[in-house]
Write the structure tokens for this entry.
Amino acid sequence: MPNPTLTFKTEVSSNKMPHSKPLLSRVAESVYWLGRYTERAENVARFLDVNHNLTLDHPLGYSDQWQPIVDTTGDSDLFEERYGSPTQDNVVRFLAFDSNNPNSIYSCVLAARENARSVRETISSELWQAVNNLYLWITTESRKSEATDLPTLCYQVRMGCHLIFGILHGTMSHNEAWQFIRLGTLLERADKTTRILDIGCANGGLLEALRALGFSNLTGIDPAPICVANTRQRGFAAYVGSLSAIPAEVPPFDFVILSHVLEHVRDLHSAMTSLRPLLHPASSVYIEVPDATRYCQFLNAPFEDFNTEHINHFSATCLHNLMRQYGLAPTGPAVAKVVKSSLDTLYPAVFATYSFGSTTSAPVTTPITKDESLKGRILQYAGLSTDLMRSMNQHLSQELANCPEVALWGTGQLAMKLLNDEPLRTARIRACIDGNPVNQGKQLRGIPILAPSQLTGIDCPIVITTTQHETEIRRNIDGLGISNRLVSLRVQEPLAGASL
């Protein structure tokens, strides 16, 4: 098998001060990747060996056991392109010897050897010999035409990697180079062993971002079957379920993500009780929710945070209080953030990470802390929303004073609120348009909801009944060549960032 052309990792931080040196020198980077690639080769060999042992109890020709091991490596798309069927021979060839697979044992050992060769003056001669011998052995094995004895292959690779790490500890001074090899080894080990679960994964966008950061053991849960199907198409394990209905086959995880989930949960006690079996004593939970203390600072539409989907409203203090009741203590202070939910809208959120303080799930003994300011801030938000709603209706009354008919673009919750007040309550609605396929074909106040492409023969003004997506809607209207007069709900500049 010819040697592959590899591009070795040479990135350094781009966020450095002027005239500063890169974070990693050439030597530090090479020894770091020496440790990481060696650990990766050992991991793949171990996966193959364990999977082979599991198949011994299955009927002859049973192949379903081999697809999950490809999924675990995060290279299922490449495998599908090159091999198709996940038979044992195909998977072993792909994970052990395929030079076009950057995570195969052969590619990892080759990369480890190249990094070791570039720093031979830094590492011990015994370490170089061990790395080079493993490379020569795996190269010879890859060129054999006969079927590979998998247990022997895995044993030899694992023993070769263990020999490298043993020589590393026994023949090198525990200086900076040694520390960087250890850093690479341990980071690779964490990457391969950390199990991450995203509850409420939607279409797998967050899982995709985590994979781009190097994580590979990723799973999602979502109540919508279509979202689960989309997540699986991205190559992730995904299950239909929710925080209150965890599938029985889902095991415990090292890190569980609840991003914008708890505000939707009606019964928080049942939800937190369901969460417990997903955690072991060393697990951590990341929780992110809308920040109710800053609703006023990001008022884009009246009462947009008081909608039918947001049942619970949290401050950082309230979130900590809830977690402590179930034995979870914050690992650090809660952090406020701003989410750009659309081109027009910024959204306040707060997040924190929690873990068990002990091996039990008993409530943390820290007393409940009352958030003295939250009630006043929510009341202030309600008052500002009332004023904004009144202003919008007055604005619409002026804009539509001489219009016998009007069309509405957007059928969300703000549109429903506007239809309960004048002037839209008594206006003649000619058409309702919505770009969301989920809403198209339904009715709003007895009027069918049309797709944008269905808007023909209507010459009345169009009210854009959303502030969150106005820019996207205007672009869509321009692209369709629609020339109707457009009426915006924005009667003033957005209040994002305003001080209390």
Summary: Confidence is low (pLDDT under 50) at residues 1-23, 493-500. DSSP finds 15 helices and 14 strands in the chain.
